[in-house]
Write a structure and sequence with these properties.
Layout (H helix, E strand, L loop, with lengths): L1 H5 L2 H8 L3 H15 L4 E4 L2 E4 L1 H23 L8 E6 H16 L2 E6 L1 H10 L4 E6 L11 E7 L1 E5 L11 E5 L4 H9 L4 E6 L3 H9 L5 E4 L8 E2 L11 E7 L6 H27 L1
Parallel strand pairs: 3-4, 3-5, 8-9
Antiparallel strand pairs: 1-2, 5-12, 6-12, 7-10, 7-11
Length: about 280
Amino acid sequence: MAIAETGSMSKAAERLSLSQPAVSAQIKRLQGLIGGELFTRTASGTALTELGKLALQQARRIIDANDQLLRLGGSDRFSVHRLGVSQILAQPVFDEFGKESLSDLFVSAEHSSEIRRGLLEGFVDVACLFLRENFGQELEDLVSGDFQFETSWVKSRDFVARPGAPIPIITPPEDNWMIGPLDRSGIAYRIVLRSSDSAVRVSAVRAGLGLTAMPSALIAPDVVRSRDYYLPKLPPSRAVVCIREGLVDPDVKQLAKRLSALLANLNVRQDSRRESM
């Protein structure tokens, strides 16, 4: 499980406080018992084989069963739950939960597409992420909280578009929700930066490289909503809280409930800002 989550034998060894040879030996033993290769080396690290993916699913079930067994006697020696958070939601989660609540969790803050993958493949127990159209159907049965956020164009305070020049746009990898409205409106644009890292995109906006889009409730205080008349209206952003399939742990349900409350509060703040404008 650790190798699958980190994508590396050495990183897995570091997380487990073991030597890399010890991890390699355990994997060889497990492969001998199962009767096939569980991992393959790729240019970017260590990836699961098809057999490895099946083994990982069973490993998650074993760990879950072990946790439930330990809880019968009131033991607190259960595995750490994995929280997956979309990068743009990470700061509100940190602010709301604080050190004490987060110390019992393993937190993964990535682009929503990676959090979605982790939820489906068993790397994430509870997720708080954004879903775009055509990218979240497989999660519908896992959703425990569902919220809509207004989406706005964002720019630096001193950004001014050059007359007659294409609008410089900063996008995430899955950008059709942003680029589609521009195409349909016949607006000339050029993509100047594409990054899955929300902090990088906001930094590029601060530097005046171009415009991006994000949920209105999450706009940083040092950038502003662009109200330029020529920019098309954007579809709302859908934020969801999901629980991994088959997980019924009461602590997990409580965690999901707290995340839903956080999104609900962000929604209220968004509505209050709109009314005050």
